[in-house]
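Suppose a colleague, Dr. K., hands you the sequence of a protein chain of 149 amino acids and asks what its three-dimensional shape might be. Before reaching for any lab equipment, you can write down a predicted structure in token form. Begin with the sequence itself:
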Amino acid sequence: MKFDLLDLSFFGVLLKIILIVLIYIIIVQALKIMSRDVKRGGLKNGKNLGWRLKLVYPGDGGAFVEGDTIPIGNKLTIGRNRQNQMVLPSPSVSNFHVKIYFEDGRYMLEDLNSTNGTFINGVMVDKKSLQPGDEISISQTVLVVSDDV
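The predicted structure, expressed as tokens, is then:
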């Protein structure tokens, strides 16, 4: 069987085209992954995700009004005491009611032995990881976890 030189050059061109298409697909997938990380506000390698709490019902929110957004950062403490980053002046809020912090690539909420408890989506919790859309209730104040940066 005899191969023509023209046939071999066709296969060479075909292999080059296939290689270019594969490289293009890899680059597009890498850009999609990077874009998702940028939209989330950070990577999960120790940096916080840039999530926020959106105030949907101020209740006893003190200086906060409906629609305010509070960045969580690496740690956010909420309570009646002025040493907290978010102060809720209601007597039904404990001095140091709850803390939200970033750990192992996720946000955690921890109730600090508050008198009246902390609720996520209507369930009283001691410690729980947070997801976007979770509704946090502290006394009459209602906050929603948002990953919109």
